[in-house]
Each structure stands twice: as structure tokens, then as C-alpha cells.
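Components:
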Amino acid sequence: MYHYSGVVHIHTCYSDGSSDFSGIARAALKSGAHFVLVNDHDTLAGLYREGEKYLHGVLVLVGSEITPQRNHFLCYDVQRVPSNKISPREYVRKVYRQGGFGFLAHPDQKENPLFPAKMHWDHWNVDMEMHYGLEIWNFFAQWMGSFQSVSGLIKNILFPKAFLKPPNPKTLLEWDRLGEKRPVPAIAGVDAHGGRNLGWLPTILSSYVHQFKTLRTYVMTQKPLLGNVQRDRVLILQALKKGCSYLVNHYAGRVNHFSFCAHFGDHCCRMGEEVDYDPSMVLEIVLPAKAHLRVIKNGSLYAQCTTEKLRLPNPGPGVYRVEVYKGKFRPRPWIFSNHLYLRG
Ligand SMILES: [Zn+2]
Ligand SMILES: [Zn+2]
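Structure:
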């Protein structure tokens, strides 16, 4: 498998961000990403003006963020953005009817008394027939929810790496519960807007380059990317749609190699895959370095240890995922996998 690191959920000058695609791709190159996903509010203007393409060696793909007051929805592989005036059920359906797919954006975003705005999702079971996914980790939403006062804001600006917590436990629990009914792909979004339009934040923190070094979504593909836009976009979008991916907090460290799969016979069930359980199955997790590993089964802790590699024979049917924390004294959330669905 080939692993590619992407920055997901970016606003550009075609909505309320501060840069065109070239500036976005340059920032992505500086921060070491292979691809970026643009999600301007309620528009595909960037797609029509600039198109999807490789810029500075980075593949720029374009979706949109359907943005009513709350219940934001990140959609990809669409030709038209559904109106934000219709119900969430309707706009999610309209995305899937035209062959697209998407993710509930920042579903549990906390309110902030300094910048009051309710942007969470009201209800999760929008439509179980649609295999929409969840943005379980959102850098900007976490940042906005991490302080309640001006002194808290200053602390976050001075120590940006300290505020980034794991995804909201409520989101994780809902994600695990949904996963028991159907596969639910997850992504980590940055929700980057660039420096210029957030003038009250020190530019270095709000810049695209800085924010692209925070949360990443790594996709895994069977074939390598070759520089052909039409071919490569399909590989990346299919991996995202399926949940053949894992989420990384780059504040805690880069990732050279990570694997989480269930082996049985000659087969290997990878993240995002759904298979019938077989007692000969062995869960195998290989981390990029020694770290604290938590294996979650059906929403509950199943096993944990500090290790670089773990094998768990015959774990039983269930929905499995792993969480990895790095550091001895103040462990930081590092890697969150997508699920393996071993159905009994
Ligand atoms: Zn949003
Ligand atoms: Zn956004």
C-alpha cells in the first residue's frame, strides 16, 4: 500500500480564505503534504476558475462546504453545490444523488463566549442510507473551543501545541455506534482560512503553512500516484470515501509508517473494510515509533499498552479502531485510525 498525507478542509480566496490555489499548494509543499482538499463555503468557484490540478507538486482537489448556520457538510466529487436553504437530509441526499460523497463537518463544535456561533450538528442520523462520514477532528473548531476567556486565548497563542486535544469523546462514541450499523469513514479537517482574514491572530499561527502542519488525513492506495490528475484524484477520493485512511496530529510528530489490519489466511482486512469475522483472524498494529496504544472495540477500551507493535489473535467480531498517544509525561494525541469492521 502507498500512504499519502493530505490537508483537508481548506478555505481559499473563493470564499473567506486568503489565498488562491497556487498559494495553498505552495504552503502545502512547505509543510510536506501530498494533496489538499479545498472546501469553500457553498461554492465551486475555485473549481471553475482554476480546476483540479497539480501545483508545485501538490494535487489540489476541490469540494465545497455546505454552510447553513449550523449542520455544515463537506462534500466532494460534486458538480453542483446543493443550496444551504434546504434541510440537511435533502442536501446530503443531493450530494449522493450526483455521485458525490461527504462528511458532517465539526459535528460537536463547542461554543466560545468570545466568538459566539453555534456550528454543531443537530442530529446525526441524517439518513442512514447515505454512507456519509464524519469530520471527527477539526483543528479550527478545537482551537475555538479551547479557551473561554482572553487569558485563555493568549495562553493558546503562546503554547499552540498544548491546546490540541484528541477528538471530542462524544463524537468518537457516536462514530463508534454508527459504525456498528454501517461503515462510517472519518477525516481530520484543518478548516484553514489563512492569515490575512483573521487579523486578530498572529499571522504565524493563522497562516496556511502553520495550520497545514497540524492535523492531517493520510490515505492508503493500492497503486502509487503518478502525476495524472484524473487518475490520481480517483485514488485519493476513493480512499477517503471508504475510510481507507488514518488521522495524524503533526504537532505530536510525523508518521513514516503506520499499519492497522486484521490478517486471516492470505487475506488482510484494512481500515475502512467490512468483512465476515473468522476465528483465525489476528489484529496487527505497527506504529512509527514506541507510543501508547489503545485498541477500541465497539466504543470501549479493548486493550492498551506502550509498544511499537501489537498482535491480538482471535479478537472476536466487532468494530475496531486504534488511538495512539505520544510522550511520557504529557502524552499528546498522535494517530487515530479509521475502523475495521469484523462482522459476526
Ligand atoms: Zn464549517
Ligand atoms: Zn470550514
